[in-house]
Amino acid sequence: MKTKIYNDIIKSLKKIDLNCNEDFTVEIPNVAEHGDFSSNVALINAKTLKVKPRDLARKIANDLSKKRDYKSIEIAGPGFLNFKLANSLYYKELKKILKAQYNYGSSNYGHRKKVIIEFISANPTGPLNIVSVRAGAYGDTLFRIMKHIGFEPFSEFYINDAGNQVDIFAESIEIRYRELHGHCVEEFPFEAYHGEYIKDLAAELNTIEGTKLFHMTEEDRLERMKNFALDAIHKMQVSSLNRFDVQFDNWMSEKKLRLEGILEEALSYLAEAGCTYEKDDAVFFSSTKFGDEKDRVLIKADGNPTYLVPDIAYHLTKYNRGFDIIIDVLGPDHHGHVSKLRAAIKALELDDSKLEVVFLQHINLLEDGEVVKMSKRTGKIVTMDDLLNEVGKDAARYFFINRKPSAHLDFDLELAKKKSSENPVFYCQYAYARINSILKKAKKAKLTLKKFDEKNLNKLDNIDEINLIKKMMDLSSVLNLCADNREPHRLAGYVHELAGMFHKYYAKYKIIDEENTDLSMARLYLISAIQIVISISLDLMGISSPKKM
RNA sequence: GCGCCAAUAGCUCAGUUGGAUAGAGCAACGGAUUUCUAAUCCGUAGGUCAGGGGUUCGAAUCCCUUUUGGCGUGCCA
Questions:
Q1: What does DSSP assign to residue A380?
Q2: I need a surface site. Which of A94, A155, A534, A548 has the fewest CB within 10 A?
Q3: Which domain range does residue A73 map to?
Q4: Distances in Å between the alpha carbon of A115 and those of A119, A251, A349, A406, A548?
């Protein structure tokens, strides 16, 4: 609708002067008296055309008033154009919603651009924690929204199943395994993993293997433990994610990248580009050439690659797979890392503008108002499963989607538990359930939309009804904004507002009035549309739409 | 030191890319249930948009600066 008005204005503007500036906006004002839509076109163009803003606005208004789509066009303030639309346009949109059903709001906005969204990518050394809940809710919602509006998104989880951390992980299992067999460990090493689940894994392995592992060489034993534990953790993570309704198109394994020689490939490309050199027995990447503040080590003096190498190799595969947009969703502690990665991508002569990194800010876990330090090493974690047990999937998803990625977030578990009745997600779901209940009642009263004559839509003529339709029309521009800015939290706000408008409407008007079936039917038509739009929005956030609450 | 992110109501946060009178939820207070489900609605109260300067018709939004907080600045990942 905005674009329609925008185009109408352009046409009208061209008649006045061809040298007009098209960089103006059409917006929905936040004050109702300012009309349904409002444009600053006259303010923007007044200076270049050397006329007074209000005079220019008058000219445009006179021209556009000839169209019958506009009920009125007013000039206000310094020179805003305020449009009021004819109700027929709204009724048309309402019909569109009922016709499109759950496809409403979908579009070709994304032009089938291929987008890879990598998110969570938690270490495979423990259960998913609350940080992953945020990343999961964010990444999956962004994925669903992009898909709905015509992108071709692809979700991926990167598993760091090789390297130093994983070795420490295996050693931690080894220590717990030895304990089971009476080997006394004087002091549990600080850097090892302390969580209780390590003991569980060791015990599980023990029931399978018993003492057999002691007959292996230490190297083989650790390898066996590593593979066993990685596999167990992976299954654990997949099961948590299933509960959270997050699916991945692909799990990319670092180990696999290593086996396939992608690391060497990346290194040789960098060498060919003349961007590597040897110093102090190590191989360096001259990243300063590409805007990094200092050169980085690729191969350590001991011959092992640093974490940077597999990461470059991994991103090389993202480019090789032909994605148009590459989105990495990371924690804030990785931002120092991105300049290095970006430098490498430039060195490989790849288009670094394709790579976007979204940093999800920290979550402070609060207990009695105090911040609790979370660490996998010390074993103090709140897992995704804990959270799902406490508040359920729907509330957890809403809670974590409902804020912009760049905002820090204080999470009070006590409050989250209490929230079960206060959480805004129920407010939205309740609107859906309420509508369902009204529709059920209408059916009993033999009011069905099959017999409805759409001409009667003009019974929907009060301001609240028109406002509801206007709100529903916003869906597609909200989705576009969510996708463009990688900010799915806007959808959470949107559905909350729509639900609120419905609740108010419900309290104010009687929908089923057996004395006036035409009006009742029109209103049933309206709330059916609301139900569809709420359901689409919730579904895009991975939240269920309960028929009854 | 340098770099990145933030600062909006008592609390948790929005604010449609520079628009007109800065909004929700929670908490507080007052009201509405013979109903279409009260997990709801109506009302009251709550603000120097961290401070200062700049850009222009117009700034919470853009630029500069100060302050405060978080993070980064490894031959850890």
A1: B
A2: A548
A3: 2-85
A4: 13, 16, 20, 21, 37
Q: Please give the C-alpha separations between residue A357 and each of A110, A115, A299, A445, in angstroms, as whole numbers.
A: 19, 13, 25, 55
Which residue is the nearest neighbor of B32, CA to C1'? Answer: A507
Q: How far is the CA of A303 from the C1' of B77 (A)?
A: 17
**Around Cβ A137, how many Cβ atoms within 10 Å?**
29
Q: Among A243, A276, A304, where does a domain finish?
A: A243
A203 within a domain of the structure (yes/no): yes
Q: Which ranges of A348-412 does DSSP label H, i.e. alpha helix?
A: 384-401
Count of CB atoms within 10 A of residue A355's CB? Answer: 19
Span between the terminal Cα atoms of chain A, in Å: 35
| Structural contact between residues A525 and A92, judged by C-beta atoms closer than 8 angstroms | no
Helix or strand run (H / E) with residue A70: strand A70-76
- Predicted TM-score (pTM) of the model is 0.93
Q: Are residues A425 and A531 in the same domain?
A: yes
pLDDT tens digits, A81-139: 999 889 999 999 999 999 999 999 999 999 999 999 999 999 999 999 888 999 999 99
Claim to verify: residue A427 and residue A535 sit in the same structural domain: yes
Q: How far is the CA of A506 from the C1' of B33 (A)?
A: 14
| CB neighbourhood size of A74 (10 A) | 15
| CA–C1' nearest nucleotide, residue A301 | B75
In a domain, A445, yes or no: yes
Give the Cα separation of A285 and A282 in Å (integer). Answer: 10
CA A137-A141-A142 angle, to 5 degrees, is 120
Q: Find out whether A381 and A114 touch, Cβ atoms under 8 Å.
A: no
The CA distance from A225 to A204, in Å, is: 11
d(CA A228, CA A222): 10
Q: What would the pLDDT profile of A306-362 be if each residue is shown by its tens digit? A: 999 999 999 999 999 999 999 999 988 888 888 899 999 999 999 999 999 999 988
Nucleotides of chain B in contact with protein CB (under 7 A) are: 2-7, 11-17, 19-21, 23-27, 36-42, 57, 69-77
Number of structural domains found in chain A: 3
| One domain for residues A516 and A429 | yes
Residue lying closest to nucleotide B58, CA to C1': A78
The CATH code of the domain that includes A444 is 1.10.730.10
Q: Is residue A425 part of a domain?
A: yes
- Give the distance, in angstroms, between residue A508 CA and nucleotide B63 C1': 48
Residue after which a domain boundary falls, among A221, A243, A265: A243
Distances A28 to A40, A332, A522, A533 between C-alpha atoms, Å: 11, 35, 25, 19
Q: How far apart are CA A381 and CA A133, in angstroms?
A: 12
